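Me: Here is a favour to ask of a fellow structure person. Could you put it straight underneath, so I can go through it closely?

Assistant:
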Amino acid sequence: MFRESIDDRIGDVCVVLIFIALAILFSVSICIAGAANSNAARGPELSGSIKDALGRPIAGVEVRVQAGSRVVARTHTDPAGAFQFRTIAPGTYTISVNKQGFKPTLETIVMSPGKRHEPMVLAMEATAPLTLKVITERLNKARNDLAPEIGATAYRFDQQAIQKLPEGQNTNLAQVLQQAPGVSQDAYAQGQEQIHIHGENGGGIQYRINDIFMPEAVTSFGEIFSPRFVHSITLLTGVLPAEIGYRPEGIIDIRTKDGCTDGGPDNDNIEMYGGQRETVQPSFEIGGCKGRFSYYLSGFYEHNSLGLQAPSDSPDPNHDYSDQGQGFGYLSYLINSDTRLSLVTGVAVNSFEIPPEPGLPQQFALAGVPTYPSSEVKENELEQNYYGILSLQGAVGENLNYQLAAFSRYYELKYSPDPIGDLIYNGVAAEILHTGFINGLQEDTSYKLGSQHTLRAGFYMSGEAIELDDHAQTFHAVDGVPTSDHPFSIVDDNNQIAWLLGFYAQDEWHPTEKLTINAGLRWDWMSAFVTQNQWSPRFAVEYALTHSTTLHAGYARYFKVPPFDQVALETVQKFKDTTNAAPVNSGNDKIEAETDDYFDAGIRQRIIEGLNAGVDGFYKFGHDQLDLAQLAGSVVTAPLNYRTSRAWGSDFSLTLERNGLSAYLNFSYAVLQAQKISAGAFLADDASEIGYIANHWVTLDDDQMFVGSGGASYKLWGNLLTADGIWASGYRRGFANSGELPPILQFNAAVIRNFRMPGIGNVEGRVSLINVFDHTYQIRNGSGIGVFSPTYGPRRTLYAGIKIPLTQLFKGSP
């Protein structure tokens, strides 16, 4: 009760802070109006900026204000492409802009007395034809215009930031994201990519590739997206714009590399990376463009003896080998200077041995097997992922941009048990096949309506066929006590079709130069375990208080669909009176979409040149809170619903880029609580927990209340020295998640050096040390709601790598 009262007060404080921020924003808007009236009294002023076709500022442009043939005033643009005329008498004028290498541009403007004129934005067209690279950059910029970030909290990693991490491009995507605010590390099979954002674990992380939503499988050990093919990664949280639906826990927006901008002789390479734990990881990148065609290809293979986190603190767990491979391709063809056809395709095949927990006592007797050490249990999992996106992107004139995409993804997981060990220690040995095949369409359009409005609209539709087959051996039992040492078979094959459909529309409005309002509405429909639909309004405001301070606040209603990996009640009842029986064999198995009301407010501050800080606070209350749990000790992960939920917290980030030093520091506080399991109660640990949760708020097991990350890099004597680290309070444990594990702490470091080798060219060498201080920490201890597997973080491990350019290898000595 004492803990609940503290959490209640903290939640109240967060709500108050959010509304205080909104009040401040309202007051500032009133001040703006007063300032505008004051400026109007001084007479009209004319200002603006001049940019090229890619939106880049053009310096040194002659700007003339003409009344007929008479030049009233003239000036030149500054390095930022800006110009200004202090006072222009009321009247009608022609603005003439000229610069060598660009076509002259004319625009008519009316200056009215007592009226404030918004800054002009003029575009100049180059006289020389655009190259393929320039056209590609312009289309990439136009695609960015389809997806605004107004009101959301964005944390971005570009390729340079990824290269500065201790393992560089060999870092897996989960570890990259752990360096962002609010992101916490978890064990394999616990959450998408083994991470959580603000403690959520409802399968609600959304992956977008070049602005296309690519649904990713939730039950998975391996990953299918590598930082190697990434041009940039943006993590979006908070109040999301209306085009984002279905999975709003956090948006991982991936912009892929392009052969024209990221390929070519300076970027084509092969790399060999490896070290302890029998790690061998060769990889390659190659790309380029010719004529209207652009291509980029990358891939890697990895073998190691630490595929999954160990179930003990041993640095070398038994039976933990892994072989993983990925391939990625991006192909594009310019139909004309305004239209591009692109194909994204990828494959990921991952094979894992699942390390056993040593020293366990035998739980069940199996005929003919008197002893079987738990350290010898051998389980395996094979995962396959194949995906593709075909998109047509273009522009009609200067104001209309669009992208239409068709996508497809096939996923297959095959789990092979130890037919002896699993029966003796788990009471069940289940061979599981899980597949998912999804196809869909997505369309997004933006239209600039005058200088103040950008209208956006689009739709999403998909259909997915899911198969979950369970062929198990188990024992007959009464109240959990086996009545025989001879197993029998249970076959449970399930199929499901899931449909999603959604539409959205929104308006980005700039009523003043400093104030932006983004308002939208989306409608979503789901047909899977149940059929549901919802209207979801979105509203966000952003205000540039000064040139270095930006405030934002907003509200969103979310419709979060569950992962379509349902465990049906019929399946649970098949295992009744066996050693694999669930604690509850009845109840509701119709998993519904989670609906949330989400509030957010924050501030971004440039403290000094190169030093930036951000603070963001959020509060949500939800209905049918989604959470993932394991079924009765198996590898099957499925969703359940809590009737009500509440969450609050804040993120703090600090970044520094100054005098060759790059550094960042993040700290987050988040609480996620729920009560009463309304569907899928058989996934909980025991019946007494279910009864307790029905009348008490419980903190969900994936919520780490405090999470921190930080890193720095500095160039010294030709070497790049880099380090990063993560810290977090422990995950929940024990009855109804009432306890907490010890904190997590890990530091990593590396030394990187570029040098020139005769006959080869510029070579990059890297030495990386993971868990520098060999700190032993436990991620999970095998207790908590729906959590059964203990896992530990990695022990100290040394790796090294060398990256060699391909060009000189083919051409010979330079």
Observations:
- The two ends are 74 Å apart (CA to CA).
- The CA atoms of residues 45 and 88 lie 6 Å apart.
